[in-house]
Design brief:
Shape: rod-shaped
Radius of gyration: 61 Å
Protein name: Late embryogenesis abundant protein
Largest sheet: none
Strand content: under 5%
Organism: Christiangramia gaetbulicola
Number of helices: 1
Helix content: over 70%
Oligomer: single chain
Order of helices and strands: H
Number of strands: 0
Distance between the termini: 209 Å
Keywords: Signal
Length: about 140
């Protein structure tokens, strides 16, 4: 009789051990599933962070490109302004040179006209003086 009781006790003990092991295995599997879910969540968070970082880097690159484009445009504007100023300065210098040349020509023409007028007046005065001298000689010959 001891033997059947021992066999029943052994079977009960083995059943408890297997049940306990099965429950432990289920708990471990459940914990592993939770850990796996936590790992997936963590990986999703990391992926989200990486995407955010990529978006921020894209924004930085876009800003850098915008700044570069703005600097290029500003340099182009400065170059255009310098070229325009050079054209205006050249045009102003040419205009001033032309005006000076015209002034010099006008002054030369006026001087030439003045000299010619003075020469004519001198010639007329000499002719008049010569005529007066001839008239005086004729008066003295007549007397």
């Amino acid at each position: 009789m001891k033997r059947p009781i021992l066999v029943v006790a052994l079977m009960l003990s083995m059943g408890i051990v297997f049940t306990s092991c099965r429950d432990t295995a289920k708990e471990k599997e459940s914990e592993e599933m939770e850990m796996s879910d936590d790992m997936e969540d963590a990986m999703d968070d990391v992926e989200d962070e990486m995407e955010d970082m990529e978006d921020e880097m894209d924004d930085v690159n876009d800003n850098n490109n915008t700044v570069r484009d703005d600097l290029d445009q500003a340099a182009s504007d400065v170059e255009d302004a310098v070229n325009e100023a050079a054209r205006e300065t050249s045009s102003g210098a040419k205009k001033a040179a032309n005006e000076a040349e015209e002034g010099i020509k006008k002054a030369a023409d006026e001087a030439k006209s003045g000299v010619n007028q003075a020469a004519k007046e001198t010639g007329d005065a000499l002719k008049k003086a010569g005529d007066e001298i001839k008239g005086e000689f004729k008066k003295s010959d007549d007397n």
